[in-house]
Write a sequence for this structure.
C-alpha cells in the first residue's frame, strides 16, 4: 500500500535525507538514487528499491515501477515536491527517488573470468569521475570497477547520478594497493597502467586478457611504485598544450581502444 507523508519532521524523511551523508550510508548499508532514468535502469537490471518516494504527477513509466515495487514489498511513499526536495537536498529535485541496499565491495566476490576487461582506479577524489568511469565500464562491457586506496564514495548521490544507471550494472570492489596486487597475482591478468613516464604509445601496445586497466589520481597520476608493478605502462601523446586528459576521459579512450585492438586482432 502506498503511504502518504506530509510532514517535514517525519522520521522517514529524516532517515532518507541522512543517506546523503557517507557516514549514514555506511551505517545503514544503503544509498540514494534520484531520477526516473536511473531507477528504471535498476529495474531493468533486476533491482527494485527498499524504498521509493515520489511526488505526483507520475510519469507512466514511474507508475509502472511503483506497481512493481509494491508487489516486491517496497515501502512506496507519496509526498510533496517540497518534502522530496528536503530528502534529495536539491531545490529542483527529480520527481522520484529510491533507496537501495549497497552491495558488498570485497575483492573476493570478483570473478576475473567474467569479463576480459576490468577498470582499476587509484585514489580518485571526484565522485563525478567515478560515476563517469562506471558508465564507461558499462559501455565497454567491463567486469567492473576496482577502487584502490582512499577514494570518493561510489555510492554518493553525485557518483550515482554521473553513472547514469551503471552503478547497477557494474560490480564495484574496494581494496588497498597491497591487497589488490596479491589478489591480482593469484590468477591470470595483465596490469596496464597509464603513465607520462613511459615511451610506449597506447596505440602500439599489445593487450592481453583479462586486462586490468589502471588509472591514477586526478592530479598526481600513479605513484612510481604502482607503475613499477604494472606489466605494461602506456601513454597517450598530447598534441596540444594539455599534458594529460581528465581521469574519466583517459579511461574512456583507453577502454575503447583496448576493445578495438582485440577486435582488430581477431
Amino acid at each position: 500500500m502506498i503511504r502518504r507523508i506530509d510532514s517535514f519532521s517525519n522520521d522517514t524523511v529524516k532517515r532518507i535525507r541522512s543517506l546523503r551523508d557517507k557516514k549514514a550510508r555506511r551505517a545503514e548499508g544503503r544509498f540514494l538514487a534520484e531520477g526516473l532514468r536511473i531507477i528504471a535502469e535498476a529495474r531493468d537490471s533486476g533491482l527494485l528499491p527498499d524504498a521509493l518516494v515520489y511526488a505526483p504527477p507520475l510519469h507512466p513509466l514511474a507508475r509502472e515501477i511503483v506497481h512493481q515495487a509494491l508487489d516486491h514489498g517496497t515501502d512506496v511513499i507519496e509526498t510533496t515536491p517540497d518534502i522530496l526536495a528536503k530528502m534529495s537536498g536539491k531545490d529542483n529535485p527529480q520527481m522520484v527517488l529510491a533507496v537501495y541496499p549497497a552491495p558488498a565491495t570485497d575483492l573476493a566476490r570478483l570473478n576475473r573470468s567474467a569479463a576480459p576487461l576490468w577498470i582499476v582506479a587509484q585514489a580518485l577524489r571526484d565522485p563525478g569521475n567515478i560515476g563517469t568511469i562506471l558508465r564507461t565500464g558499462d559501455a565497454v562491457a567491463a567486469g567492473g570497477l576496482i577502487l584502490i586506496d582512499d577514494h570518493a564514495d561510489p555510492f554518493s548521490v553525485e557518483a550515482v547520478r554521473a553513472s547514469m544507471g551503471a552503478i547497477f550494472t557494474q560490480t564495484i570492489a574496494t581494496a588497498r594497493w597491497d591487497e589488490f596486487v596479491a589478489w591480482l597475482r593469484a590468477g591470470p591478468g595483465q596490469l596496464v597502467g597509464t603513465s607520462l613516464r613511459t615511451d610506449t604509445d597506447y596505440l602500439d601496445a599489445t593487450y592481453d586478457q583479462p586486462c586490468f586497466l589502471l588509472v591514477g589520481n586526478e592530479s598526481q597520476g600513479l605513484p612510481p611504485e604502482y607503475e613499477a608493478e604494472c606489466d605494461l605502462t602506456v601513454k597517450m601523446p598530447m598534441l596540444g598544450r594539455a599534458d594529460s586528459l581528465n581521469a574519466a576521459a583517459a579511461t574512456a579512450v583507453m577502454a575503447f581502444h583496448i576493445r578495438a585492438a582485440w577486435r582488430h586482432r581477431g
Notes: The longest helix spans residues 247-265.
